[in-house]
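Step 1: inspect the first sequence and its tokens.
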Amino acid sequence: MSFTDEEGNESLKKSKKKLKGESAWRPEGPRDPFALLDSLPEKKQQEIQRALHLFSLGRSLPKTLQEAKKHTYRFWGTQPVPKLGEKNVTVLSHGPIEGIEASVRDEPYTLPQGFSWDTLDLSNPFVVRYFLETPHISSNYPGKKKHLKVCENVFLYHCTPCQSQWHCGVRVQANKKLVGFIAAVPADVQNVSDREKQTVHVKLLCVHKKLRQKRMAPVLVRELTRRVNLQGLYQAVYTADIVLPTPLSSSRLWHRPLNPRKLMEVNYPRLRQNMNLQRALKFNRLPETTKTNGLRPMTKKDAPEILSLLQDHLCKFKLSSILSLQQVEHWLLPRQNVIDTYVVEGDDGSLTDVVSFYSVTSRVLNHPVHTALKAAHLLCMASTGSELTDLMGDALILAKSNGFDIFTAFDVMDNAIFLEKLKFTVSDKSLHYYLYNWMCPWMNTGFLLAVK
């Protein structure tokens, strides 16, 4: 080795020592980022993937009307919905925005090369299982394999009954992977003019995270619209927590802790921040037993009386569901870990009250003890023999005894009567209600029934 080489090596050693902790060592060539990611622990990989997903979302969709007015809606601007900024509060009549087309396209809309349409048969348990094990679906319907049966029941409850062609999916042709899905269920409604309208309720729009900025969601909506139009239906009801053109009404979510200790242990964000554990337990304490006489779980034979009770109750709202006996049995008949319904039977054997709530389970991440949070969400209630506050108070007791950690409800219909009295707290989450191809006046939440 020459003197020059030794001097060069000595100089290199000094420079590495000086730059230690900064950039003293660099690999000769670029390392494979995927190999580097695979070499990390699984927990660290998941954290990186979540962070990358957040950064890849780009500009978020508007959550308020002020943000929405500055947003450009490339898809919704072409659809038969009220445009943002229109004075729809002055509209006094109900009616379609676009007339019925003479003919509806028979062929599905064209997809990019490599993708194909699919109609999912949800009566096939293997199809349902595959659907729920698809990653971008499991993020919406949480549950490990040991809880998979519960997830199947919840999923089938929300997406049936409906025609199979309304279960619209997109697959990758090469490997048949499901990367998009949208569904609709029948939801006939009645407005303030006693005008009945056949509509559908759009449910569960899911798109693979890599395709969410590739305009797949509008393609799914257009294809579902085409399939619904083929059945002679041209209106739809849907909800979203973002502002689209243009909300029919908006409501706020309220929550009532049932298990404050667990909620504090998992750092649930909607608890009162000024309470310690002992104060929270005392403040949210509930009686051990219900006080309404004749309160019992619903049975199938109760369905006709419940239908009559709900019809009399819903007719006072400006927009309400028109239910059939089959729908009452599907939406309200109790199913374990899916839906709970209770009725009040009078002394003469007739039903005077009904209250129903369904289960929403969320995953708890990175906690040594708790893996899930179980919430009860109010579906409907009607009362002719009890005070609403008393009936709802008993519902809280029953939900707690059934293992629910929190009870949630929107401030629609008559719910404002009991929310503050029963120590519900309003959250920052809003839900907006929309009608597709139908113009009508703005509705206060007190006159609106959220279609299930």
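Step 2: inspect the second sequence and its tokens, then contrast the two.
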Amino acid sequence: MGNCGTREESAVVVSHAQVQLLSEKKQSQSQNRTLSDLGDFEDSRKNALLYTHVIAFTLYELETITKSFRSDYILGEGGFGTVYKGYIDENVRVGLKSLPVAVKVLNKEGLQGHREWLTEVNFLGQLRHPNLVKLIGYCCEDDHRLLVYEFMFRGSLENHLFRKATVPLTWATRMMIALGAAKGLAFLHNAERPVIYRDFKTSNILLDSDYTAKLSDFGLAKAGPQGDETHVSTRVMGTYGYAAPEYVMTGHLTARSDVYSFGVVLLELLTGRKSVDKTRPSKEQNLVDWARPKLNDKRKLLQIIDPRLENQYSVRAAQKACSLAYYCLSQNPKARPLMSDVVETLEPLQCSGGSAGEVSSSLNPKLTGGGAGPFAMGGVPDYRVRHRFSNNVGPGAICRSPNPNCSPGGPAACRVR
């Protein structure tokens, strides 16, 4: 499906003043707020910018397209609200083009729902990228807060990885999803005012019809540090199993906190296991604790690769991906790579058309410790990195596919030679 087009002719401009007005209206209605809540609320309001191409829907219009929020229209439910499928067209409002959408109805309880609604409008209203879910519009009537997004046909990465009834994702598709999600995070971190996503996990990575990964649910996103600031101090929020250890311990949030969460998701893609799984033996319940010691051990790392892949992948590519996950999950935040470096590392692991999916036999210099590569930074000596990766790469591992185009979205696979 891709990014659901530009619909400038049907868009309504939401001004900074309008967002402030919505904030003030809700603020006057809420009675039980802590000083911390008010501080976070004011931060969100101050960060509001001028948004274009965002449609202001009425509650009646959104009730119409979801058949009064019928239960059989529910796509999913999360901590911040229920998501329904809908369809907008000229019958909803003259000038709208036909488009399937997802409508999120935020919880009404307390300030939390409104603050997260406002945060999503603030960030997705101004940010556009192929790997971020597109915000089509919003609704703010009385105490109702709704958001309207482009519809993602294949749902969440979580469902594809962990639902037993689904066909296992191929190696090529997993690496394509990892790259797309990494590009989304890199875009946020490199924005004019950096954004820390703070809730990066498989359930927040949505897939379109071509398996393009897009980040969704910006309710916990925070503006990153500026100037001489090294971090943002905030209440610890997120999802257990994905949050960086230093953030959990101190509340100090940085872009490297997102990098850690990315490492957890990459580990889930590699192993097919959940970040936390209480059904497994006690030593295997926490994925990072169980898998990280094996990621830089060439004798053990292939033992943790998802057995559902049935060896249909390049050993060299698996080794590189495992090494990347290892550094993303470093206990020392400064030893983790930047997301832009993660993108650069993942790009050579993609199966591309015209090359029969062959993975280059030469190591990415970012991984070999040569020069100022990201893994040579953050206190990891150059020689140790070079030795570690040179030992991990075996000869002659070529990515082969029965499909000459090696389509990442299709069933093509890369066979171990």
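Step 3: confirm your contrast with the notes below.
The domain at 8-150 is CATH 3.30.200.20 (Phosphorylase Kinase; domain 1). Residues 1-50, 352-417 have pLDDT under 50 and may be disordered.
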